[in-house]
Amino acid sequence: MKIVLAPDSFKESMTASQAVAAMREGVWSVLPHAECVGVPMADGGEGTVDAVVDALGGERITVEVSDPLGRPARATYGYVAARSLAVIEMASASGLELVAPSDRDILRASTFGVGQLIVSALDRGATELLIGIGGSATNDGGAGMLTALGVAFSDADGAPLPPGGPRLPGCTASTPRAWTADWPACTSRSPPTSPHHCSEPAAPARFSALRRGPLPTMSRCSKPR
Within 10 A of 36 (CB to CB), how many other CB atoms are there? Predict the structure, then answer.
């Protein structure tokens, strides 16, 4: 008997590869002669690097980055040299699992660490980026990521903007370092600032402080200028 084991990850609990190992052990406890084929799945969140690198062949690169709150952390991305392809998870550098529930602050969390992963991949020779945008503890519109790539965000007076989404309305920015990013990988295609945008339904589920009301910054951003 052949059994295909194809789970996704279990958020903040178990990677898809770990789930495959656990499922295989369970199957063999009942069917010791079964042939188990592990196919870890991913939807752009945790486990995307493992799933793609294992499928295409490649290596895992670990670098020093800033976590969502600017603290030192280590994050891993995948690199497939034969295709000059880098596979990057937002979750690795800016994910929920990096921040204790009591410390999660979506209004100052930054995607700067994701930008640091992109810079490392570009320096390694990547010409294509597969960026999984799931499992994030941030909601800054990618401003932190762009800052790491060379964008300078400033207010109307020319003063640098601090990290976090609430400072974005009305800012100006310079041109970032160029790169090619194909196939963004995510589970939702809702625009962040549409009438039914993804920020308000997603953020309160992850950040208890926001359950008291809507996100005023997103409301301001969605209004025509």
Answer: 18
Q: Is 1 helix (H, G, I), strand (E, B) or coil?
A: coil
Note whether 20 and 49 are same-domain residues. no
Q: Which residue has the tokens 């898809």?
A: 16
Do 56 and 130 fall into the same domain? yes
Give CA torsion, residues 219, 205, 142, 154, to 10 deg: 50
**pTM of the predicted protein model:** 0.73
Asked if residue 90 is part of any domain, the answer here is: yes
Q: pLDDT of 107-155, one tens digit each? A: 789 999 999 999 999 999 999 999 988 888 888 888 889 889 888 777 7
Count CA within 13 A, CB hemisphere, residue 181.
Answer: 18
How many structural domains comprise the chain?
2
> How far is it, in rounded angstroms, from Cα 217 to Cα 108?
12
Q: In terms of domains, do 139 and 157 share one?
A: yes
| 159-178 core/surface letters (b: 16 or more CB in 10 A; e: else) | eebebbbbbbeeeeeeebee
